[in-house]
Amino acid sequence: MAATKIDINEHFYTVLKGAWESNINNQSRWVIFSDLHLGDGSVRDDFKPNFESFQSALRDYYLKHNYSLILNGDVEELQRFPLDVILKNWKPVYMLFDAFANKNRLAKTYGNYDLQLKFQKPPYDYQMSEVCKLSYEGGHIFIYHGHQASKKYQRQNDLVGFILKYFANPLRIKNYAVSHSSKRQYKIEKRAYEHDISRNQISIIGHTHRLLFESLHKVDRLRFEIDQLCREYLISRPSNQESIAHSIKFYQSELEKSHQIDNLKNTNSFIYHHNLAIPCLFNSGTVIGKREITCLKISDGKMRLIHWFDKNIPKKYLQYTGYDPILLPNTEFYKMVINEDALHYIFARIKLLC
C-alpha cells in the first residue's frame, strides 16, 4: 500500500512542477470553468442545452468585468467528435475565448477527453499546459483537470474514446464516464486531497463533475446547512421562522436526492480526513449540469462557488435555497453564490491543520 502512495505522489510532483504560473493579489479576478465537452451541435452534444447560459456568463459578466479565464480540461469532446467539426459548430464560443486570449486573460489545461491536443497543436493560439499555478501571498493554488489522480486513465483513455465514438454516438448515449460513479469520484478526490495535505497547498479540479468547496462535497455541505438553520430557527423572530423552516425542508429533500443519485445511503461522510476536513480541495463542477452551469471564481481575495441558471428553474429553488440569486441585467440568466471564503482564512486553516 505504501509503495502505491509513493508512486502517486511522484506522479503528482512530476505533473505539477511544470505548471504555468501567475501571481495574484486581492485585485486579481479569475474564473475557472471545467468540462464543457463541446461537440457537433447535434442532439448528441452534451454542451448544447447550456450553451446560452455559458455564453451569457462569459460575455455579459466575466469578460465585461475584466476576469481572466481558466478552462480546466475536457473543453472539447475529442473522443466523440473531430476538432474541426467542433470548431465549426461553436464559433460563437471560440470568439469569446479569443476575446479573453487577445487580452492575455486565457489559460487552458488538458483533460482526458481533449488530451490529444497535448500532442497535436490546435489551430488556436491559447496558453495551454497540464497545470496552472496561481500564487497568492506565499500560498499556491494548483488548477488541473483531475484525471491525473487516476492511475488507470492513461491505459483506459483510448478504449473509452473507441467505445464513445463507435457505440455511444450511434446509439445517442450520453457521456457518463467517471461523473456517474461515486466510488471512482471519491478515489480521485481522495488522492488529490491527500497530496494537497502533504504539500500544504490548494488544488482546483474538474473531471468528476461534482462540486467541492473546502474539501466538502454536497452531502456534507447540506448537512452543515441544515444544522446551522436549525440553530438559527431557535433564536429567530417568529416572522422569520416559517421561511427558515421552508429552507430546512428544501435542504432535506436535496440531501435525500443526493443520497439516491450517488447511492450513498450506507456512507456516513465524504470528508476525506478522519477527524476534520482540511480546506485544500475544490471542484468547479461542470458546464453540462442538469441545473445549468457552475464555476469557481477568485476575486477580492475570496474564493466563491458560483451557479449560473436561466429563468426556467423552479421558483421553489429560488425561494428556499437560502442563497441570493441575482438576475444579470438585460438577460434571462441568474448568478448565485453557493459558497465563499477568504483566501487568507483558507490558507491559514491549511497551515494550522495539516
Task: Pick out its properties.
354 residues, single chain, Purple Acid Phosphatase, chain A, domain 2, disordered N terminus, 20% strand, eight-stranded mixed β-sheet, five-stranded mixed β-sheet, alpha/beta
Short description:
This protein is an alpha/beta fold and 354 residues long. 39% of the residues lie in helices and 20% in strands.
Give the arrangement of secondary structure elements.
Elements: H1 2-16, E1 20-23, E2 29-33, H2 51-62, E3 68-72, H3 83-89, H4 91-101, E4 106-109, E5 127-129, E6 132-136, E7 139-143, H5 153-168, H6 182-199, E8 202-205, E9 212-213, E10 216-217, H7 218-235, H8 238-262, E11 281-283, E12 293-299, E13 302-310, H9 315-320, E14 326-327, E15 333-342, H10 343-353
Parallel strand pairs: 1-6, 2-3, 3-4, 4-5, 7-8, 8-11
Antiparallel strand pairs: 2-12, 6-7, 9-10, 12-13, 13-15, 14-15
Verbal overview:
- The protein is globular.
- The two termini are 22 Å apart.
- 39% of the residues lie in helices and 20% in strands.
- The protein is built from ten helices and 15 strands.
- The chain has helices at 2-16, 51-62, 83-89, 91-101, 153-168, 182-199, 218-235, 238-262, 315-320, 343-353, and strands spanning 20-23, 29-33, 68-72, 106-109, 127-129, 132-136, 139-143, 202-205, 212-213, 216-217, 281-283, 293-299, 302-310, 326-327, 333-342.
- Helix 2 links the parallel strand 2 and strand 3.
- It has two domains: 2-215 and 274-353, Metallo-dependent phosphatases (Purple Acid Phosphatase, chain A, domain 2, 4-Layer Sandwich); 225-270, no CATH class.
- The longest helix is centred in the last third of the chain and has 25 residues, at 238-262.
- The strands form three sheets. Strands 5-4-3-2-12-13-15-14 form an eight-stranded mixed β-sheet.
- It has 354 residues and is an alpha/beta fold.
